[in-house]
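Q: My collaborator sent me two sequences in one message, no labels, and asked for predicted structures for both. Can we handle them in order? The first one she listed is below.
A: Yes, handling them in the order given. First sequence, followed by its structure tokens:
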Amino acid sequence: MWQDCVCGEFTHMAFHRQDSDDKQLSGKFLLLISGQGADNTMTTSDKFPGPLRTAIRDLPASKIRAISREGMTRDDVVPLWFGEPNFPTPKFICDAASEALAAGHTFYTENRGIPPLRAAISKYMSNLYGIDVGENRITTTVAAMNGIMLVMEAIVDPGDNVVIVEPLWPNCRETVAIMAGEPRGVELDDVDGKWVLDLDRLFAACDDRTRAIFVNSPGNPTGWVMPAEQQKAVLDFCREKRIWLLADEVYARLIFDRPYAPSFLELARPEDPLIAFNSFSKSWSMTGWRLGWLTAPPSMGEVFEKLNEYNISGPTTFVQHAAIVAIEDGEEFIGETVEGYRRGRDLVYQRLSGMSKVSLSFPEAAFYAFFKVDGVTDSLEFAREILNKTGVGLAPGAAFGKSGEGYLRLCFAASPDVLSKAMDKLEPMLS
């Protein structure tokens, strides 16, 4: 018999059992890795040559990708649908990758990342937050997305739930669904042009099958930043309830009124039930390089060692070497890009605010404008209409959960010329 996955005692993972019957353990493990849930749910169809897990069959396709696929073949499109800058990775990082390749850094590495990179990340985070973040807490991943998936594999059994603050990047929600768990959304409120989280509703959404609370701050798509006092309250709640706190902090440096956004890591003890995710994608303009890291209690190191082995066997070697240079020499670049994003934000906010059908909150961080359009009830179809009529590619709000319906997301990590062109094209449809 398997013990419920309750956190606080970190041995109480999905792999822990109360009995000592190896045959029972093997049987249960095989069910899990074959994708069968507690009810052994499996589906067959003429569409596929063999059985398929129900959770995978029912997995929705990305609504953001649906729009981008329709527009990528067009030469006249202004692509503001993805969360990435429209300029390449800086030369000093690319040069470091080339040098690593030339030096022969093309072999397997340690599952949790090469020691020099983990040391660089540890130093970077310790200096940034003014705390000691030991190397033994760091695991490198194939971007934050892979880290989030690893954690869901570790903590979610079929029928468990993860309480998620929404609107939220859809990939986070679907990792729970992939594990046959329930992503349980709690919506931010738009109060007088500012996103606000009701902690009472957040805590009330948790029950005895809740394995984690997931918070993305700074938020995608909203630009919302969770105040430090709310972070403390959520951390205290997770400690008390013995559940995980999962903090997606990939936009931590892309904030406009301070050097970095408040982090749960500043408040937590090393063995607290906190796992924080970060990435090289956003701050260092390395979206296509696919490299990130997670920060977890030291006791979780062996868990992620094994999960990385069975998922990716470690990120790409020469990319890891380039990342050392990025993190050690990239502060000036981050500062310059944040100023550029600030100008993009101000331009887009000013223009959109003047369009009669639009209402939006002022983005505190990240690089998105998430705006509501009067009368829109199907944001995917409206994004298609905008693409077809104006050539501007936007992400439909429905991609970010039910609370995002009626909204559109625009990435303003682009040059003023590109953003002005997009605004000129959008204005007739949004005014």
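Q: And the one she listed second?
A: Here it is, processed independently of the first:
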Amino acid sequence: MGQTITEKIFSEHVGEEVYAGQIVRSPIDMVIGNDITTPISIKAFEESGATKLANPDGFSIVLDHFIPAKDIASANQARISRDFASKHNLKHFFDEKDMGIEHALLPEKGLVIPGDVIIGADSHTCTHGAVGAFSTGMGSTDLAFAMVTGGNWFKVPESIKVVFSGKPGEFVTGKDLILEIIRMIGVDGALYKTLEFTGDTIEYLTMDDRFALCNMAIEAGAKNGIVAYDETTQKFLDERIEANGSLRAEPKIHFSDEDATYCQILEIDVASLEPVIAYPFLPENGHPMSQAVADNIKVDQVFVGSCTNGRLSDLKIASEILDGKKLASHVRMIVTPGTQMILREATKLGYIDKLVDAGAVVSNPTCGACLGGYMGILGDDEVCISTTNRNFVGRMGSRTSKVYLSNSAVAAASGISGYITDPADRKSVV
């Protein structure tokens, strides 16, 4: 009986063939915490009586939501993680000295690799499926159990096979592909299922595209998103070895069998797809670019960043669109690079100068604006076009504000005109 890539990853970890629907106890290769969720995990860990981490080299804490601290409460929250990391001499602890948003930083550091089982107390942990790993979000106490035992219990998810066909248009990205899927099946259309991304379109997708694609699998309710290893993955891993000296461990490569069982198959013609704009107040409220232009939607703020679209390619396309231009007089723009390395590389390549010259503010790597914490909170009735992953009521600030989700090219073009704008329409962004 054929297996999906997700079934094979769990089979390799538990030492026998397993299939969708089975309950398994699996070792975990990497546990990821952040400054919001980790203190809860630490408390549960200590209350258990444990004194040592089961797999200290497979545990990482990334302070990214409210760092540098925005207030006394966040400072005290961060201190709990800092003290724990110091006490346990944690190898993979990332603070202000080496900053980054966790789902951008961990791949950059070579700490998530193909074939891994990865959990994090953050719903967007599914991002790491882009490297061919099983990666999912769990609760803080689930993390504590993994910290104590080195593993956890999972129900092996059924898989939805997503078949993308055709070459994407110039301004169609991984973000648009996942927004289209969510538009099709809704925010609970893949509840506790794997979204396995396949098809000839995959060869055209960069790793940044794939990270964005898997990042928002949770917005369709999915347990995980995953893309199988290929030459693009290998090139990315080689770059990580060059940058860091090595990967955390040797990759374990798995591919779905041709006769694997899927609970659903989705087919999407990418060649005919426009950029997708998710209107308030759900990511499933997707509309084609042409509809958004016709609706003449005025924006007050542009945001480029987050664990979804804060990578180097996002800063590149935004800077190219904004090069030599200025933001509309009523528009402010915030750019948040995913990591310090991305910020440094973008500076070296001239992207940051172009963004600042256009009128943008560039912040440190942080999740702050995305969840309405700081560094870009929206006021009453304000409208933001954002490259983040959620647009729920009050997500980025006031409960009367509105957030439209888009890719980075659309966001940048909209900043120039002051209205949601198609980046392909050069006349509107001159």
